[in-house]
Design brief:
The complex is a heterotrimer. Chain B is an alpha/beta fold. Chain B contains eleven helices and ten strands. In chain B, helix 1 packs across helix 8 and helix 4 packs across helix 5. The termini of chain C are close together. The chains are: A alpha/beta, B alpha/beta, C alpha+beta.
Chain lengths: 357, 248, 69
Amino acid sequence: MALTLMKGSEAIAEAAVRAGARYFFGYPITPQTEIPEYMAARLPEVGGCFLQSESELAAINMVYGAAGVGERAITSSSSPGISLKQEGISMCAGARVPFVMLNVMRGGPGLGSIQASQGDYNQGVKGGGNGDYHLITYAPTSIQEAVDIMFFAYDKAERYRVPVLFLADGIIAQMMEPIEMPEMIDYKVDPEKKPWAATGWEPGDDPEKRAQITSLFINTEELSAHTDELQATYSEIKKNEVMYDTYQIDDADIIITAFGTVARVAKSAIDELRAEGIKAGLFRPITVWPFPDEALAAAARKAKAVLDIEVNEGQMLEDVKLAVDDKRMVDFFGHCGSLMPSLEEIKAKVYQMKEKM
Amino acid sequence: MAAVFEKTNLLTDKQFHYCPGCNHGIIHRLIAEVIEEMRMGKKVIGVAPVGCSAFAYEYFNCDMFLAAHGRAPATATGIKRARPDSLVFTYQGDGDLASIGTAEIVHAAHRGEKISTIFVNNAVYGMTGGQMAPTTLLGQITTTSPKGRDASVSGTPLKVCELLAAVPDTYYVERCALNTNANILKAKKAIRKAFEYQMEGKGFCMVEILSACPTNWGMSPVESMKWIEEKMIPYYPLGVYKDKGAEQ
Amino acid sequence: MIHVSIDERVCKGCGLCVRACPKNVLALSKTKLNAKGYHPAEVAVPEACIGCASCARTCPDVAIGIVKE
């Protein structure tokens, strides 16, 4: 397989196209704009549709339409744009319309900055929209990982009828890396596989097959039954779809938890710490929902302390604490405001923790 | 026994929940009959709004979506781009289209989306109990204009046909009413024309229909029809505001 | 012979059909109440009906059917 040097935004967009996405609706916002730009040129080549909508809010509602007729639809944005989409995301989650969405995170709150950040973890994982729902949420640490995940993202979304969110910090989209790009798959809408979708119905056809794409269940018993069904699906996803990665964790005294590109800085710090006689290891959630809590709990029990590192004020920190459940000390180091933690800062924090252990 | 008039099978058996005299039911029937007459049952996809007609997805006997408030034109755009041979229509009230969804309707027209919008203008927010809408008439009392709508506070009622007719890629815009048998027939013709233009791939079409809301106007159904004639039609003149097809 | 049938279960007694009929064929029942508590419309003067279907067209609940022998 040939390696191609590609920019993150373009590699992810190409991966989506090769994974069967033919409908992109989006809006310009730094630092993700190369995704719509790439789609604008690429989708027409494969008989797809690129549409620059009037707003991110309109874009998610266009995705609802295209995905609702069974197509593989995709949208991308950055932090404030993702905030604008929250009502639409909650609607799709409620109507169980699957699609893929990318959040190339930038500094917040508000307009924040255009540099990378991880400040939308809670928005993505705890649900930024209304009601009890979740999105299968992946936090890639490299462009290759994002590409690889994209190749099964639609299968997961469609199997569970739950939207998939990529939480990629701005660096993933902006950097270039050598990429192995899998072959294009041939995706066709199959009404049998998506009986819920609007794939053409007329009076006389099976009444059960008439598409009613809605998240409204005005009758409380019906809504309750519907949300029970959603919760059962989320439990199923928790059982089957958790993904995480570890590095030098088996004998680690201090486990560093980090996701996305921050985990790469942590890895370098771990190598140097190990060279200086400190046994540190990395626990990296790949799915930040469903969160790998059992795996982290097991790892933490073998270590002495946990240090969570993020580019925010400590959002995944809460899930780390829940998983560690006070069995071990959990500390945090992170900047909000888009400042990536440096290797030296991470090492200094570990040394500081050593004194208290 | 020849049927002079019978219910179209493009309406489900579910009884309308609408108030007595509400014109939504008439409009639903007109749309359903046009779809049946055009034999587009298999190819039609409707998008219902948030509002009294949110339950339209239970009434139209075809593939239906319920969109977020104001976003039906965006959802319809996503559908139509994916299914260009389908007949895609949005069904929207004045709160949905002329208030929260103004950006979506203007941009669907701006892009010349090949969808058809049926815009039900009843000058109030019905479902939530009769609040002021952008189409509420000056002086009209609603639960959020208790002393009558005052232009210095909330502006002058929005004329949507005139607004959208000014958008370059709007193809056909007409305003209708249902206060007389002749007007009901005209409204059906307008809906039919909008749907046919869509299937000919002409561009964005909208039919605005002035509609009675007896409950929230605080009148009887019969008085409501009179109110349309005496108050709404003078401010919202009926007729064709744009028809590129006729101009050729 | 023209036969107008009004589905009394569906009718909400709004009176629009009565208003629309050019021949004053229809009237709201003064005696009957349907399950929803409305006085349904009924065909008061069947012989005056000319089968124009104005009533059926204005009925917001599609409660009126008309057949002609």
